[in-house]
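SEQUENCE WITH STRUCTURE:
===
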Amino acid sequence: MTHEYDGTRQFYLDQLAWLQEQQRIYEEIEGLLREMRDVAVTESDETLSDYERQLLQEEIHELNDRVDALYREFDPVH
């Protein structure tokens, strides 16, 4: 009985750890998306030079790559 209990307990602990990791990834994605939104709002400022706008576009591209990587980590099947 104890062995069966330990196996069930470990299963639920593993599930909890997996869910916590998924939550961490989700929160990181959410933060990156907020950051991308903020950068996009800044990029729409018409007083920016072309160079500043280009830097912001590069930052958005880097943030997007990080979000994509996290999505692959979150759901490796897709």
